[in-house]
Amino acid sequence: MFEYLAAGRPILAVVPPDGAAAQLIRETRAGVVVGPDDVDGIRVALEVLHARFLESGLPAVELSEKLRDRLGRRARVEEMAALLRAIA
Fold first, then answer.
1. Apex CA 73: angle with CA 87 and CA 70, to 5°?
2. Scanning 30, 57, 62, 68, which has the fewest C-beta atoms within 10 Å of its C-beta?
């Protein structure tokens, strides 16, 4: 998920709508969330994204520096190290 965000492209997240990935996509406004069983929703999201692409391209998703730092690998590694220290 973090690599997709770092790419700066709009994301079509076909994930459980109440999960962590969906929450992150919504929080960052990095794309569209559709449930994996929502076939019509997936179709509509693809059609909308395709139409936007044809009309004006899909603009890059800009994350704030603060958000980039929070989601970056360094922060992820530090979080994992803290967790391992806590359970060791």
1. 90
2. 57
**Is 45 inside a domain boundary?**
yes
Q: What is the pLDDT of residue 5?
A: 87
Q: Locate tokens 């391992």: which residue?
A: 84
Distance, CA of 77 to CA of 26 (rounded, Å): 23
Q: Mind listing the pLDDT tens digit for each residue in 45-80?
A: 999 999 999 998 888 888 888 888 888 888 888 989
Alpha-carbon dihedral sign for residues 57, 29, 21, 36: negative
The torsion angle over the Cα atoms of residues 43, 36, 38 and 58, rounded to 10 degrees, is -30
Beta bridge partners of 13: 33
Number of domains making up the chain? 1
